[in-house]
Specification:
33% helix; binds magnesium ion; 4-stranded antiparallel β-sheet; binds adenosine-5'-diphosphate
Length: 230
């Protein structure tokens, strides 16, 4: 599904260079459910931004679904991001004054999907995350856990090849976090490839594979023993 080879990312700030990723090699197969772990500052978000096609300023190779997408130009990268990747952020990133339905429809507006089909798919995605009865609510009228469920609906609505999430439970209480992990598990059961960042062992135990970062390098890659299945 995706493969990166020797990814090096250097942030240049003023005269100081900081190398946040020091040669990352990783292959993720279709249908996997992977957690990226590691302490704060270890390069997890930097890596996720590259995987999620939010950043094209790096060295190395990125093959997604058989296509070499290394260092694509901004427009081409945006196209891949819309078509192949569903990205979920820690802070949800919903548009507050818009309804849940409108928020979920957004990526399909960019993709040029006609209104009727857009509505239908958005409703289906919201039903999938258990919010089918609230589609007309404004997104600032719901709880954090519900907001993240909307964000997941928005991420899956275009049928992406990979679902990616950076600390999706980072702003949530335990109960909502478990609900979110159950949704990811269900999506993975249905065949979705899921890659997510978490720094919590308790959350990583819902996934199937743990890749640990430290100081910009992968220091561990293991299958999860005693995985929790909800
Ligand atoms: P994590 O998500 O694991 O906490 P990050 O990928 O956000 O780590 O950051 C890795 C390192 O890169 C940190 O030392 C951080 O300070 C640095 N870094 C992140 N973003 C930038 C940036 N835009 N400019 C300069 N340094 C950055
Ligand atoms: Mg981070």
């Amino acid at each position: 599904m995706l493969e990166v080879r020797n990814i090096v990312k250097t942030y240049v700030t003023g005269e100081l260079d900081f190398t946040a990723l020091k040669g990352i090699n990783l292959t993720i197969e279709k249908g996997e459910f992977t957690s990226i772990m590691g302490p704060s500052g270890s390069g997890k978000s930097t890596f996720m931004n590259i995987l999620g096609c939010l950043d094209n300023q790096y060295k190395g190779e990125y093959i997604l679904n058989g296509n070499d997408i290394s260092n694509l130009k901004d427009d081409d990268l945006a196209h891949i991001r819309n078509k192949d990747i569903g990205f979920v952020f820690q802070a949800f990133n919903l548009l507050p004054r818009m309804t849940l339905l409108e928020n979920v429809e957004l990526p399909m507006i960019y993709a040029g999907v006609p209104l009727k089909e857009r509505r239908k798919k958005a409703v289906e995605a919201l039903e999938k995350v258990g919010l089918g009865d609230r589609i007309k609510h404004k997104s600032n009228e719901i709880s954090g856990g519900q907001k993240q469920r909307v964000a997941i609906a928005r991420a899956i609505v275009n049928n992406p090849k990979v679902i990616m999430a950076d600390e999706p439970t980072g702003n949530l209480d335990t109960k909502s976090s478990v609900e979110i992990m159950k949704i990811f598990q269900n999506l993975n059961e249905e065949g979705a490839t899921v890659v997510m960042v978490t720094h919590e062992e308790d959350i990583a135990r819902y996934t199937k594979r743990i890749v640990k970062f430290k100081d910009g390098e992968i220091v561990l890659d293991k299958m999860v023993g005693n995985r929790i299945i909800l």
